[in-house]
Amino acid sequence: MFRPRFAWRSVAVLGVAALALGACGDADDEPEDITEDEFSGTLNVGMILPTTGGLAPYGVGMIAAVEYAASEINEGGGVWGSDVSLTEENEGPAEEPEVVAAAASAVIAQEVNAVIGAASSTSSLNIIESLYNQQVIQVSPSNTGPDFTDHEFGEYYFRTAPSDIIQGSALGDRIIADGHPTLGILAQQTAYGEGLAEQVAEVYEAGGGEVVYQEYYDLAQTEYSAEIAGLVDADPDAFVLVSYDESRQIIPSLIGAGFNPSDKQWYFVDGNRLDYSGDYDDGLLEGVLASQPVGDGDPADLVAAIEEHHGDSLPETAYVPEAYDAMILVALGAVAANSDDADAIRDQMVNVTTGDNECSSFAECRELLEEGESIAYRGATNTVWNDGGDPSEATIGIFEYADDNTFSQIEEVQGQM
pTM to 2 decimals? Predict the structure, then answer.
């Protein structure tokens, strides 16, 4: 298959080799020697993450991860001689842009240095310009839309989740490898849904498959009979659903129309790779496959530590490692810059992932920076940023649903931008 932009390696879960991580930053931009009395201030970080809407279950975990990371930063000596200060605003549903706009205005008014968020690609696109205009660093733990690469207002934008160019390519390749000659795609009409669906279709067709149905629905919809009728008429061998938790309304409609995963191979994505054990009869989703960006390594210990700090279990753990690393990387960029100047912090954000000395905790990395050393932070996700603020490499997990409608990982695919 022709893949001019990616290098892939597919491996069994138990046989995953370590990623070879290349430097992508400017090696000449070494951190300045740091002494506590050179600069004193407070690193103010705003969280714009969802507590309402379809991504709210993910928001719980991401917020908890940022709070846990901040506690580790403060225990590890803080930033600029002070504890990190966190403020939280609700991102809201992607279909209610006024909510995220109000959140951005609120954190700007509080003069934050950086924002962790938003979770939805659509929501981030709605606030990226206002944050850019105020020179606020923005790091999203879960934006995967391709639109952020080389974005007009992306000078202060970073993400710890990989572009859907990588996930979509991995999924398109997987469908071809599974031997399905025709494909139907139903996706939400958002930056996330369109970007991922189009990448899956492009790679699938480049591999010799035929997309016989590709349709988008409005995120505010609650009824999908017209779209499902078109899918049934097209009669594809395989089917991809790109959604958030509106999948819980779409799946019964598909079954009611006679379009069953027992007859067709279904594929889910990160937005709807959910635990459906309490929603449907056993066996309904058995054999359904799903893709999800994953960190390099088992996040179980980190998730357990976050849950202990949070005081409760997390409803969803997707993008929890990415949220944790987002907070750590903002803090390390600020330490390396030794300044609250947004340009200085931005310039160091890439450098703290591409330096000479690997370190895996804030305290360890901070100590190296204070000694005048360059660092390569290797945390929960092994994020290595390119100069555009995109992860330069990514690992995509392939998951399979069992009889109880829960999923487990069966494979990993590794790709490079």
Answer: 0.84
Check whether domain 165-296+396-416 has CATH 2.30.42.10, yes or no:
no
pLDDT in tens, 349-380: 999 999 999 999 999 999 999 999 999 999 99
Q: How far is CA 294 from CA 74, 164, 167, 218, 236, in A?
A: 27, 13, 10, 28, 29
- Which three-class secondary structure state does DSSP give residue 103? helix
What is d(CA 189, CA 191) in angstroms, rounded to the nearest whole number? 7
Distance (Å, rounded) from C-alpha 122 to C-alpha 115? 16
Q: Are 350 and 386 in contact (CB under 8 A)?
A: yes
Contact 172, 204 (CB under 8 A): yes
CA dihedral 120→122→123→125, nearest 10 degrees, is 120
Q: State the sign of the Cα–Cα–Cα–Cα dihedral 189, 193, 195, 197.
A: negative
Average confidence score pLDDT of the chain = 91
Decide if 144 contacts 195 (C-beta within 8 A): yes
CATH topology of domain 20-163+297-391: Rossmann fold (3.40.50)
* CATH 3.40.50.2300 residue spans of the chain: 20-163+297-391, 165-296+396-416
